[in-house]
Specification:
55% of the residues lie in helices and 0% in strands. By secondary structure, the protein is mainly alpha-helical. The structure holds heme C (HEC) (2 copies). One heme C binds next to α3, α7, α8 and α9.
Length: 182
């Protein structure tokens, strides 16, 4: 892990043209096999862009990713966001039990999540896709919103205040099991 991080920093520190940023280094952490990390291949471009800016400006806190974002200039952030957005969504393909499906569906309905995230939770432009995202990542980030540890979009924190951590876990498993292809 340390080596991967070091190579990203080394690659990005040289003032290389945008195309020289090696996206495979990002993908070594961001893929559907690493449950705790977010999938970004096929995520929407303006959402990716905002997260990278927020991490760079310390508005979103995650030491390792803040360090990586700080090595990117604005042009690189725009180009990387477009490049990942143009890839096919790397769906996690997870099964969930009927019980989780029933409960998860109800929890999503109660929160009216589809109002913003789309009828299939597929997201759009500056709203993140949730369907088929890594379940552990969803759970962690939703709990961080609830506790206001992730504070770069306060409306998400107020929406989650009424959910227990157990509900958030069930909802995350359910959302991860959705397999919507655009
Ligand atoms: C060493 C592993 C690692 C590497 C390498 C890495 N990331 Fe990350 N990244 C993470 C983790 C872990 C998070 C989740 C942070 C959190 O929990 O807030 C993250 C979060 C993100 C997010 C926010 C995603 C979302 O759904 O909100 C974006 C965008 C991102 N990274 C882009 C990149 C790009 C672009 C690169 C390559 C230049 C990169 N990352 C390299 C580990 C990594
Ligand atoms: C009022 C609109 C709105 C509603 C309703 C809403 N969201 Fe969001 N959500 C957003 C926006 C916008 C973002 C991106 C925040 C940012 O730009 O930093 C977001 C971010 C997220 C993220 C972070 C994704 C990532 O990759 O890190 C998750 C997870 C999420 N929402 C889940 C939910 C769930 C589950 C519900 C229902 C309980 C819900 N949202 C309801 C607008 C909404």
């Amino acid at each position: 892990m340390k080596n991967i991080y070091a190579s990203v920093v080394i690659t990005l520190c040289f003032n290389l043209p945008v195309h020289a940023v090696d996206l495979t280094l990002c993908e070594s952490c961001h893929n559907s096999k690493q449950d705790v990390n977010p999938i970004i291949s096929g995520q929407h471009s303006k959402y990716i862009e905002k997260q990278l800016y927020d991490l760079k400006k310390d508005l979103r806190v995650h030491a390792q990713m803040q360090g990586i974002a700080k090595t990117l200039d604005d042009e690189q952030i725009k180009a990387i966001s477009k490049a990942f957005a143009s890839k096919k969504w790397a769906n996690v393909d997870r099964e969930s039990s009927q019980d989780v499906k029933d409960k998860g569906k109800r929890l999503v309905r109660v929160g009216n999540c589809t109002r913003c995230h789309g009828s299939e939770l597929e997201g759009t432009y500056n709203i993140p896709r949730l369907a088929g995202q890594n379940p552990e990542y969803l759970k962690t980030t939703l709990i961080q919103y609830k506790k206001k540890e992730r504070s770069n979009f306060p409306p998400m924190s107020s929406m989650l205040s009424r959910y227990s951590e157990e509900d958030i876990g069930i909802m995350s498993e359910y959302i991860a099991s959705l397999n919507y292809q655009e």
